Amino acid sequence: MPFRTIIEPFRIHATQAVTFTTPEQREAALERAGYNLFGLHGDEVLIDLLTDSGTGAMSSRQWAAMMDGDETYAGSRSFYRFQDVVRGLTGLKEVIPTHQGRAAERILFAVTVKPGHVVPNNTHFDTTRANIEYCGAEARDLVIAEGRVPATRHPFKGNMDVAALEATIAQVGRERVPLVMVTVTNNSGGGQPVSLENLRAVRAVCDRHRIPLYLDACRFAENAYFIKLREPGCAGQSPRAIARAMFALADGCTMSAKKDGLANIGGFLAMNDPDVARECRNLLVLTEGFPTYGGLAGYDLEAVATGLDEVLDEEYLKYRLRSTAYLAEKAEQAGVPVVQPPGGHAVYLDAQALLPQIPAAQYPAQALAVELYRAGGVRGVEIGSVMFGKRQPDGRELPAPMELVRLAVPRRTYTQSHVDYVAEVIAAVAERKDRIRGYRIIEQAPWLRHFTARFAPL
Ligand code: F0G
Known about the structure:
Blueprint: H1 23-32, E1 47-48, H2 60-67, H3 77-90, E2 94-98, H4 101-112, E3 118-121, H5 126-134, E4 138-141, H6 162-172, E5 180-183, H7 196-209, E6 213-216, H8 220-230, H9 239-248, E7 252-256, E8 267-271, H10 274-287, H11 298-310, H12 314-333, E9 346-350, H13 351-354, H14 364-376, E10 378-379, E11 381-383, H15 385-388, E12 390-391, E13 397-398, E14 404-408, H16 416-431, E15 439-443, E16 454-457
Parallel strand pairs: 1-10, 3-4, 5-6, 6-7
Antiparallel strand pairs: 2-8, 7-8, 9-14, 11-14, 12-13, 15-16
The protein binds ligand F0G.
């Protein structure tokens, strides 16, 4: 069609009201929550960009499939449909449903990772890192140098530094590297894609050392569409064919279906190695459930199976990537630097660049996230030293490489005018950036502290 506007490729069939709050109500909510936005009630948030995980709108086809869910405990028809869809998409033989991504991670690492091991990844997501560290191993981030600098443009900023991977294996020894992971797209590094060329190079290193390669596949469809748009020779391929090519390079994957499964809950672990699969299923029964449901209802398996199919629709992916880029453009116009180019599922505001007066030890990204909520009821999430600061043996903290606020866009949920409103809120905060102050932590948990820490303003 000869028109330029990229529209939502759906019409709205059911609505859910949002709740408006006064500045006084938001201030009281912040105090109660210890300035941790994870402590807010959903009804205290107007536009919730905390995460794109499990927050999307399902399609009428998904809801219809759910009505057809088979709740049989062992051997549910819904499981076999789920298994067919996952096998068809990934080519992986062993399919293990889990209630979400971190359950797949916990089970995989419990089977494969031992104390003293090192697991390389482009950038570990926080649950992935925590599950590896919980096994007594080291989670090592090896994204390319461009991926660490917010303002640098690169078509595949999520790529793994292949030379650094080689060097890591040489340094620690092949027997201490139980698997290599690549996260597509690279969430903690800005939602940035990984190219097929880079996956092939990582695969070649893994082959040479006979180390299995696993994808953290949460946003595989967005990654596939970035490849279609940016990788030479891929423009003519369908997102499905590209996704297949990505999975064909892996020995297994962990998946949170709350992202590109277009579902509100669910995940899976898949691999080719039947021995690893057997051990994983033994653990699955212990905490998740029987291998044909893995902690999910039959109707959840149906929602995921349908979602995995819908997410590869080109009209959907075109709208998805464009609507995220639109928010990024608006934030930049409002005077807030963002990670460039914008990622697939989220826009990352560069708090360090916006608030140079706040040192990393006073959590500038936390301060910016709080201001966005205070000003307009918009909730994002800190991805900086609160989430990734490392406690040193001497008690001091090593700051994270970047101080970002992630505004994650739930799938098929908010309209363009919601995004225009968010941009106005960002502009209002940017206007009084000089008066924004940092925070100190007054209470924290030993791991994944960002979920429950309490802060005091400085
Ligand atoms: N891997 C990546 C890259 C993720 O982004 C997430 C979740 C997980 C694993 C874990 O999956 O939540 O289903 O257990 N990311 C969400 C987020 C929570 O907000 O980015 P889960």
